[in-house]
Each structure stands twice: as C-alpha cells, then as structure tokens.
C-alpha cells in the first residue's frame, strides 16, 4: 500500500510539472512570438503597438540622424518604403542597400520605432524573410536560394 | 595530388566503415568477426586521420585549386588560422565530424573492458554505420577535396569574425560533443539488439557521455564567450536557434551523465538511459541539420543549402527511426532490477532527469515552432528570448532548488529530514540573499530569486563537501587528500552550476548599457567609473587594418588603460568589432567602438556596458567542465586500479 501511494505521488508530481511546463510553453508562445512583416504588409498585418519584425533593404541615401540623435532610415521591399527610427547604435554590418531586420512597434503617423536592429554576420547574407518578401514582389536578384 | 590522396583516404574510410558496420552487427558471438570489426574500426579511424591531415596540408599550402580552400582561405592569413580554417567552413567541418566519429569508433573497438562480447561488437558495428553515414554525406554532398578549374589566384578568405582563438577551438570541441553522443547511441542500439543493458554496459557508456558533455560544455562556453567579446552586442546568450541546437543535446547529455550513474551503481533506469542516449544523438543530428540547412533564420547559419539539409534530415530520420523502433520492440524485455524509495539518491536523479528532459523538450518546441507555423502557412515568425526566459528559467529553477538535496540522500532509501537540516545554513543564506536582492532592486522578484538559487547551489555544494570531510577520523588536511576524486568532480560541477547561475542572472537582470559620442579628450561617468577617450588611431595587423581607440578608465582605486578596435580585413568589406573588456570583482566594463559620427567634430560612437558578474558565467562553465574532466579521471583511475 505504501509503495503504491509513493508511486501515485510521484506520478502526480511529475504530471503537475508537465502540465505546468506545457502551460508555460503555450502561454509563452502566444505572448512572445514575434511576427515578421515586409514593409508593404506592415499596416495591414500588424496592429499599432504590436511587436513585429520588419525586414527589408535599407534604401540608399536615407540614413540620417534626427534632432534627438537617433538613426532614421527607410526600409523597402521594393513596393513600399517605411521610415524607421532607432535610438541605439547601428550594428557593424548595417549598410545602405543591404538587408536588415528591425524589431519594434509602429503607431500611425510616426516612423516605425525599432528597439533592436539586426544585420547579419555575413556580408552576402540577406535575412531569409527579406528574400521571401523580395521574391514575392519579383524583385529577387540574388542567387538560387538565400 | 594531396587532394586526391585525401579523397582516396576518405573513400577508403567509407568502405572500411561499411565493413566495420556489417562485421560488428553480425558478429554476435563470433570472436573472429568481432576482432575484425575492431580492426576495421581502427583502420577507418586511421584513414580519416590521413584524409584530414591532407586537408590541413591543403589549407596550410593555400592550394586554391581546391574549392573549399579557395572559398575559405587566403595566403595572408596567419598560419594558426589557416589550420583552423580547415574546420571553420562547411566541408572541412563535416570531414572533422567523420574523423571524430571514426576515431571514437576505433577507441571503442580497442577498449572492450568488462562489457559482454556481443554488446561491445555490436556497438562497434553501429558506430561503423554512423561513420559511414557521415562519410557518404561528406563525400557526395560536401566534398572538401573537390577541385576548381581554373584555379583562382587567391582565396576569398575566412569570415574575419572567425579569425579568433576562441573560434579556432569552438568547432572541434562542439563536434567532439555532438559526435561524442554517437557512442552512447551506438551502445544503446547494441543493448537493444542484445536485449540486455546491465551495469557493465552502463559502466562503458558513462565515460563516453562524460566526454561528450564536457566537450559540449566547453564548446558552448567558448562560443558564448566569443559572442560576448567579438560581436560587440554586450550579450553572451541570445537563444538563437543554433545556440539552442547545441543546448538541447547538452541538456540531454547532462541527464544521461546522471542516469548512467544510477544504471551503473544500481542497475535500474536502464531503459530510460537507453532512450536518453537515442534522443541525445538525435538532438545532436538535429543540431547539425539546423546549422547546415539554414531553415531557421539565425545569426550563424553558414551553409545554406536545402539539399544538404535534406540529407542530414534523412540521416536523422534513419537514426531516430531505427532507434525508436528498436526501443519500442526491445525495451519492454529489458530486466528492471532493484527498486528504490520515493526519497532516495535514485529518485532525486530521476527528478533531475525529468527536469532536464522537459527543459530540452521546451527548448525544442520553441526552436521548431517557427518552422511548424511556416509549414502550416501561418507566416514567418520568430520565437525570441522572452519565450525561453519565461519557460526554461522556471524549470531550471525548480531543478536547481532540488539539486543540493540529491547528494545529501543515500542510495535506495534516503532521509529527507536530515538532508534538510544539514542544508539549513545554505537555505538561510539563500533567503538572506533573496531579501537583500529584493530590497536593492525595487522588488524585482525574478532576478532576486535567481541570485538566491545561485547562493543555494554554491553553499549547498560546499556543505556537501564539508559533510564528506566529517566522515572518519584523522586530520582535516589528510582527509582532504583522501577525498575521492568523484566527490570533488561532482561538487565542482554543482558549485559551477551555482556560479554560472549567479553570473547569468546578474548579467541578464542588472546589465546597464549606454551609447555615447565621445571626441578625444572627452569622458563620461558610467557605472561608478569615469571612461575617457584618449585618442583614436590607425594600426596595421597581419591581414587587417584597424581603428584603435584608447580609453582611460578611472575608478576609486586608480586609472587603467582600455582599448577597443574596429578591424577592416582586406578580404571582406565588413568591419569587425574588438571590444575592450575590463574585469573587476563586481563585473565587466565592456566598451565597443562604433563609427565616427558624421559631422560630429571628430567624435566617435561608443557603446558602454556594465555587465555585473559576467565573469562568473565563464568561471562557472569552466568549473562544470573541470568537474566532468575530473570525473573521467576518477573513472580512469578506478579502471587502472581494477586491472
């Protein structure tokens, strides 16, 4: 009888931990998943204030600093340009004309406010999401597959 | 000519691995076949060694008629990085994978120890198939010896970010870890084929798991350290898919290290140990797949080729398919001896395994979720650090809460009350830490709890050591010298986990960051220090030019120099950051040089970070790895004493 109780207790605790882990996982996935959007999809796919990843090419000649010293540049997928404002320092690999992913939020009438800007390790690398967006627009000029 | 010798040696190794696989699997009780399998394993290991030596020679000679050399090397590179370049690229790293697998097969073949003949010979056979699979992939889908015609005059160089001592050692260590998991897999399959997994089997499995876990720990640690000082982002772990790819096998290997102890000492948990060994290798292969295929957007995906990814996926399916099918068929027949009480060393190790396995599962879900969503047509998404912080951190917290209790309990039936009492000082100190941390951080519960857990682990580990020293009579110094190596290794690894926890929590929770623009002569107050930019100059490296900024850091205890660089490599248009790090007891001051500010009157962008206790992260990793290494030493000594 004692053994059986012990076994029941172990199974009970293990089950509780598993349920907890599963709950955390699904709650976590629901709340912390970040959707990728191309500039042309931003206003239709993302609600104002929702955290998204905006991917595209940095438009040549658009990088400047605003009065507060933040970097401002435009990102395009060939169809629509979105202005992005980023208060931090841009990563080493940030280049005009190259791919970039900006994580942040937008509100109507203002530039996309980026909290993180990702450029990738390799100079040949283009974020896969950007390549997808460019392919969809028929703007893809790169090699076979990114 | 050398390339052809290399390719021939690799092809020979493939043929030998097939022979090894066939002989080993069908050896059963046939002593001659078993011996032949072991001999072919040694020959295959040697052939792979020759092939890899040829590839290193090609890289050292900068033979640009070979495609992988032309794409990844350059005459101007320092010799050490020409050699490291051999495995710093896709093709070469796959040959390294084969080499490790074949050499491990050879070592397995020549160390039968106390294993039963059938188990041993079959394990050698399965390892042969693993090596053969890797060689097929290497020779047919990513041949490092492929020639270029016409040969280019100069190579295009290794990615400059990779020209770094930590990154020279990172891939071999990681591969020793990944491929190291193939030997426990082979032993597990052999046990299922034999229908037997006894204590001598677990005894053979444990050192391999320890090698894999120790190397993975060091490899991941080095990669993380590299990311910390080379990428200039101030962080050390980003929950990037490729980092997760190495973290999952690490978690399973950690579980396996513990469950193998139970199987070796008590004979129980054998079928769980087998399952873990299969999953561990599956996750190591999945890791290879995630890195190689580029299916996930990652900061490190370096060979982006769907065909190669597909091939690794096929290997993964075969390994897991065969493994799980055999497991379903054979595992129920394995004998399960001696039980244990709900409160005992064994049960704590079961909880350890449960926690680590669930954590690995959660990381797996978070890593693959974007793939599943995309496959289901749900668009492109990413799962970032917030997910992992809110799922993996609490799981590990529960695990760490239980950890110090484990060693305090005896095998079979333990006494929880006395374990609690012995650990009371650790609990008191942990609660005190919690209170102080809560008070000083405006009631931020998560990091405060994390710090308390770190203290609990460290003090708990020390109390265990102290308790062991109380046993027996004699002078304390004499008892310290006599304490078994196994006790030291376990304590070191567990205390290391505590040190790592402290560092990780402090760095993640209390990091401060500031971007400033400084002209030479200007300074800024930051994290209790004053950082002054003295001058910015140009310097020449062996194959790069650099902009070097010299800083002076004033603290209450004096002034110290600090330099940060941006390097421009001749072979690559992108600059790399060499951050300046000044370690103090309270943590690292971390300075990254940005670009010259446009129309900023000679000012430079500078990012300053204060990373509290960041050095604890890497000290903790080294302690854990040392714990693993000591444990191996303990096993080796015991074996030597036994013979």
Molecular structure report:
The C terminus of chain A is likely disordered. The longest helix of chain A has 31 residues. Chain A folds into 2 domains: 33 residues; 102 residues, Nucleic acid-binding proteins (OB fold (Dihydrolipoamide Acetyltransferase, E2P)). By secondary structure, chain A is an alpha+beta fold. Chain A has a 5-stranded mixed barrel. Chain A is built from 3 helices and 7 strands. With 643 residues, chain B is of the alpha+beta class. Chain B is built from 21 helices and 10 strands. In chain B, the strands form 2 sheets. Chain B has a 5-stranded antiparallel β-sheet, with no helix packed on it. A 4-stranded antiparallel β-sheet of chain B has the order 2-10-9-8, with helices on one face. In chain B, strand 9 and strand 10 form a beta hairpin. In chain B, helix 10 packs antiparallel against helix 13. The radius of gyration of chain B is 26 Å and the shape is globular. The two termini of chain B are 46 Å apart. About 1% of the residues of chain B have low confidence. The interface between A and B is large, with 41 and 52 residues. Strand 1 of chain A pairs antiparallel with strand 1 of chain B.
């Amino acid at each position: 009888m004692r053994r059986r109780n012990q076994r029941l207790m172990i199974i009970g605790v293990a089950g509780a931990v598993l349920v907890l882990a599963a709950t955390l996982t699904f709650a976590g996935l629901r709340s912390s998943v970040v959707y990728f959007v191309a500039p042309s999809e931003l206003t239709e796919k993302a609600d104002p204030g929702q955290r998204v990843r905006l991917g595209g090419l940095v438009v040549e000649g658009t990088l400047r600093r605003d009065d507060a010293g933040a970097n401002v540049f435009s990102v395009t997928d060939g169809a629509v340009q979105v202005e992005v404002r980023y208060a931090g320092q841009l990563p080493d690999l940030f280049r005009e004309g190259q791919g970039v992913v900006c994580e942040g939020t937008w509100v109507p009438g203002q530039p996309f406010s980026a909290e993180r800007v990702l450029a990738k390790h390799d100079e040949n690398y283009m974020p896969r999401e950007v390549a997808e967006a460019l392919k969809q627009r028929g703007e893809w000029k790169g090699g076979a597959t990114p | 000519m050398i390339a052809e010798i290399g390719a021939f040696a690799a092809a020979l190794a493939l043929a030998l691995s097939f022979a090894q696989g066939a002989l080993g699997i069908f050896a059963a009780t046939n002593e001659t076949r078993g011996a032949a399998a072991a001999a072919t394993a040694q020959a295959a290991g040697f052939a792979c060694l020759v092939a890899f030596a040829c590839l290193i020679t090609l890289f050292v000679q900068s033979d640009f008629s070979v495609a992988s050399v032309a794409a990844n090397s350059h005459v101007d590179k320092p010799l050490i990085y020409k050699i490291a370049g051999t495995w710093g690229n896709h093709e070469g790293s796959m040959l390294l994978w084969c080499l490790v697998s074949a050499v491990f097969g050879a070592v397995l073949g020549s160390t039968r120890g106390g294993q039963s003949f059938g188990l041993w010979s079959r394990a050698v056979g399965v390892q042969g198939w693993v090596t053969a699979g890797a060689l097929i992939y290497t020779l047919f889908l990513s041949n490092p010896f492929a020639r270029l015609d016409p040969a280019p005059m100069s190579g295009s160089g290794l990615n400059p970010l990779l020209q770094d001592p930590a990154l020279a050692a990172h891939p071999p260590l990681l591969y020793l870890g990944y491929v190291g998991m193939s030997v426990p897999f082979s032993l597990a399959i052999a046990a299922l084929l034999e229908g037997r997994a006894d204590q001598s089997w677990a005894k053979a499995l444990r050192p391999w798991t320890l090698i894999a876990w120790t190397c993975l720990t060091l490899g991941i640690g080095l990669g993380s350290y590299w990311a910390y000082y080379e990428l200039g982002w101030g962080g050390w772990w980003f929950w990037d898919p490729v980092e997760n790819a190495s973290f999952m096998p690490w978690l399973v290997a950690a579980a396996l290290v513990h469950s193998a102890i139970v199987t070796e000492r008590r004979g129980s948990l054998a079928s769980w140990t087998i399952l873990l060994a299969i999953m561990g290798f599956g996750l190591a292969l999945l890791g290879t797949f995630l890195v190689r295929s580029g299916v996930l957007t990652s900061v490190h995906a370096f060979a982006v080729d769907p065909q190669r990814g597909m091939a690794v996926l096929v290997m993964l399916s075969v390994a897991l398919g065969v493994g799980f099918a055999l497991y379903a068929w054979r595992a129920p027949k394995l004998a399960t001896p001696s039980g244990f009480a709900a409160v005992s060393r064994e049960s704590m190790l079961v909880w350890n395994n449960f926690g680590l396995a669930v954590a690995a599962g959660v990381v797996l879900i978070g890593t693959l979720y974007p793939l599943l969503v995309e496959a289901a047509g749900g668009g492109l998404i990413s799962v970032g650090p917030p997910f992992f912080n809110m799922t993996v951190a609490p799981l590990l917290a529960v695990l760490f809460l239980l950890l110090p209790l484990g060693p305090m309990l005896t095998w079979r039936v333990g006494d929880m009350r006395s374990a609690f009492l012995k650990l009371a000082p650790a609990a008191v100190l942990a609660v005190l830490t919690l209170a102080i941390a809560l008070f000083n951080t405006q009631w931020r519960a998560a990091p405060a709890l994390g710090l308390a857990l770190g203290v609990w682990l460290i003090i708990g580990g020390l109390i265990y050591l102290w308790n062991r020293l109380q046993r027996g009579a004699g002078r304390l110094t004499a008892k310290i010298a006599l304490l078994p190596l196994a006790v030291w290794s376990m304590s070191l690894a567990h205390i290391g986990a505590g040190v790592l926890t402290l560092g990780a929590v402090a760095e993640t929770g209390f990091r401060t960051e500031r971007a400033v623009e400084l002209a030479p002569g200007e300074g800024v107050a930051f994290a209790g220090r004053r950082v002054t930019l003295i001058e910015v100059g140009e310097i020449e490296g062996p194959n790069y030019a650099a902009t070097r900024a010299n800083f002076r850091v004033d603290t209450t205890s004096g002034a110290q120099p600090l330099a940060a660089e941006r390097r421009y490599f001749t072979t690559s248009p992108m600059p790399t950051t060499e951050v300046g790090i000044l370690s103090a007891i309270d943590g690292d001051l971390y300075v990254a040089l940005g670009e010259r500010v446009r129309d900023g009157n000679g000012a430079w962008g500078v990012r300053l970070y204060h990373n509290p206790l960041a050095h604890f992260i890497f000290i903790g990793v080294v302690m854990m790895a040392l714990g693993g290494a000591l444990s191996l030493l303990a096993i080796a000594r015991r074996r030597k004493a036994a013979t």
